[in-house]
Design brief:
The chain contains 12 helices and 12 strands. With 370 residues, it is of the alpha/beta class. The strands form 3 sheets. Strands 2-8-7-6-5-3-4 form a 7-stranded mixed β-sheet, sandwiched between helices. A 3-stranded antiparallel β-sheet has the order 9-10-12, with helices on one face. The chain binds 4'-deoxy-4'-aminopyridoxal-5'-phosphate. 4'-deoxy-4'-aminopyridoxal-5'-phosphate binds next to helix 3. Pathway: Amino-acid biosynthesis; L-histidine biosynthesis; L-histidine from 5-phospho-alpha-D-ribose 1-diphosphate: step 7/9.
Length: 370
Amino acid sequence: MSWPPLREELRGIEPYGAPQLPIDLVPVQLNVNENPYGPSAACIADIAAAASEAAATLNRYPDREFVALRQVLAWYLSSDTPAGIVPEQVWAANGSNEVMLQLLQAFGGPGRTAVSFAPTYSMYPEYARDTHTRWVAGRRADDFALDLDAARDLVKTEQPNVILLPSPNNPTGTALPPDAVAMLCETAGGNDVSGIVVVDEAYGEFRRADVPSALELLPSYRNLVVTRTMSKAFAGAGLRLGYLAAAPEICDAIRIVRLPYHLSAVTQAVALAALRHAPELLGKVDELRRERDALVVWLRDEGYDVADSDANFVLFGRFADRHAVWQGLLDRGVLIRETGPDGWLRVSVGTPEEMAAFRSALTDVNGERA
Ligand code: PMP
């Protein structure tokens, strides 16, 4: 037996994660789709006061049901759907990664199947692996949209218990039209297995104006789950707070698998304080959208293939040797992500200064390689 005595299928596997390099060595970090704008002094002071208040009662366990936080998250989500969202429809955990792992713990498992459509977020197969859920990946069309007929056929054949649909998708930026979500909810709910459909809206706030949130479909489909996060548009990646909206029975089911007191008192207090500053923290979303659209235009003018993006990142290519381009950019102090289909690279949208640095580094790398 090799050491340590790890599960067979985990041996030799690298932990998931993009390189984390010191900011003084690599000043332009555009690799993990963070919001580049930090909080204001007033917001920092409010968050610090909330953390300090929570510190006074750290000898006690936190509110296991995070009632106050669920109320505020329900209020926040209600702005995205005419039917509104009530606290019983909300669940939260330490990042939307944990929310989705809990969904797989509750609704996946041995003898059960999870489906998504590649290229897509590379953590999904890891949730499946870690919960012993069978993993099936369909393919997206060449423009990274869902091929609806193929998707319907796959769902009918595989009868998945969980379908994971990011909208916008990572790493391509592709948003899903509501009729695609509706069709998959109907197909997945209409068989003996009765699967749930998880629309992962981690980047939902960045979508273009003509794309509604899947939250609007919640009153029509009890098997629909919409996940969100404070990590991206909300500028709170360090906070680790992800959440979902779904039928109350789905939230109740997750309570069976969650660890007790999984959301610390500090997390709850800090998330509540951050939500009080929602207008400020979300205040750069429009600017980031404009910066994204300008980046797409610039890259296309330069002759690259670029996927349409509803997110705060852009997938572009195609490169015979994408690693060399990634390395060339890194050598010039710009870190992007080597991910997605072969030949493509993904860049997050940063400040105007960061994007100028990216454009100039890419032009430079190209000139050198020409
Ligand atoms: N979904 C998608 C599509 C993502 O890209 C990410 C983060 N990169 C997440 C979920 C998880 O984010 P978090 O755990 O920070 O909420």
